[in-house]
Amino acid sequence: MSHASTRARRLTIAVSVTAALALGATACGGTTKDDAAKEGAGNAAAGKADPNAATKKGLTVGFLPKQVNNPYFTSADKGGEKALKELGSDYKEVGPSSGTDTSGQVSYVNTLTQQQVDAIAVSAQDPGALCTALKQAMNNDISVVTYDSDTKPECRNAFVSQASGEDLGRTEVQLLAEQIGYKGEIAILSAAQTATNQNAWIDYMKEELKDPKYKDIKLVKVAYGDDDAQKSFQQTQGLLQEYPNLKGIISPTTVGIKAAAQYLSGSKYKGKVRLTGLGTPNDMRKYVKNGTVEAFELWDPAKLGELAARTAVALESGQITGKEGETFKAGAMGEFTIGKDGVISLGKPTVFNAENIDQYNF
Questions:
Q1: Is the pLDDT of residue 35 over 80?
Q2: Does the fold of domain 165-298 match that of domain 3-162+301-347?
Q3: How many angstroms separate the Cα of 324 from the Cα of each of 70, 337, 338?
Q4: Other beta carbons less than 10 A from residue 335's beta carbon
Q5: CA triple 137-138-141, angle to 5 deg
Q6: Number of CB atoms found within 10 A of residue 259's CB
Q7: φ and ψ at 274, to 5 degrees?
Q8: CA-CA 20 to 30 A from 345: which of 147, 294, 310, 330?
């Protein structure tokens, strides 16, 4: 039986089972071993994880980033593609060209569902907007993994987080506070106002700032650059015009921090207004070396994409269902344990500065 015909049969079985359950009936039917494993893997509520189950091959995993031409997501998704090749499965990428196209993401989820992929890995633009489409995918026996930015827990099987939101939010405040001597006005340059991950990190930044040791630091504004380079550049300029005494900026977005660094490096504020946040070494190298930026942080996006891919395959193989406490092996990355609400954390962020930045290439 071909993979496509097997998949079509699985969809028919899923529909039939749903109808039977709606009538309060139970039924037994002859399914292939492949079908049975697939049905168990695709239903997180079933709770029948088998960590020793064989890793399935020949799967198709669709990656749906927030923006296909964003260097950060290009790196992340290449990590996913490499992992899937190693695992004997197929990779496909679709997605909007704009970093704020929520409706576009919905249509791509629907397309991947219609194309009967085995799993979807998505970085959600909005925490709720994708839910209906993702639930439909799961109803069609497709495993759903979010990475980088989450949707609601009930709308996916697992979320692969870059690091804990608390670690990221608090450490960015700590980095900037050290650079400005724990005194002065600061601002945050975020991405889209609806971005789940950005908002979670900003909440932790505000929580960290409540510590008495930051009593002389004042957060004056949160600006939004929508992960657009030109808008982020303009927002940086606007912040400095509106707050001439600004001492520092935190930009927890790779597009935002690069644009802010570009503005600062060509302005009278270079070396006077400190900038930190989340950036890639390749984007930020020249700004670290020319004195615009002292230190910033990030995780390895390729590893994030790899873990998303390996999580999707583990779900499809029935090794995990997404429940708290389950463990699985992710190749050379080691073993991971699923946390509360199906969250899997990649690890702690890495701080980049003049001493170590040349050791990295992404």
A1: no
A2: yes
A3: 32, 8, 5
A4: 9
A5: 100
A6: 26
A7: -80, 145
A8: 294
Tens of pLDDT, residue by residue over 184-200, are 999 999 999 999 889 99
What pLDDT score was predicted for residue 100?
76
The span from the CA of 283 to the CA of 288, in Å, is 10
Q: What is the pLDDT of residues 226-277, one digit of tens each?
A: 999 999 999 999 999 999 999 999 999 999 999 999 999 999 999 999 999 9
Architecture of domain 165-298: 3-Layer(aba) Sandwich (3.40)
Q: Determine how β-strand 350-353 pairs with β-strand 295-298.
A: antiparallel
Which homologous superfamily does the CATH classification assign to the domain defined by 3-162+301-347?
Response regulator (3.40.50.2300)
Residue 110 and residue 117 in contact, taking contact as beta carbons nearer than 8 Å = no
Kindly list the domain boundaries of the chain, sorted by start residue.
3-162+301-347, 165-298
Contact assessment for residue 357 and residue 293, using Cβ atoms and an 8 Å cutoff: no
- Token pair of 39, please? 């049905």
Amino acid at 171: T
What CA–CA distances, in Å, run from 290 to 98, 131, 177? 31, 44, 21
Nearest Cα residue to 150 out of 169, 166, 165: 165
Q: Which two tokens stand for residue 12?
A: 């028919």
Query: How far is the C-alpha of 160 from the C-alpha of 308, rounded, in Å?
Result: 6
Q: Report the candidate in 189, 252, 185 with the shortest Cα–Cα distance to residue 214.
A: 185
CA–CA gap between residue 32 and residue 251 (Å, rounded): 51
CB 76 within 8 A of CB 302: yes
Backbone angles phi, psi at 343, to 5 degrees: -90, 130
Residues in the chain: 362
How far is C-alpha 272 from the chain's CA centre?
A: 32
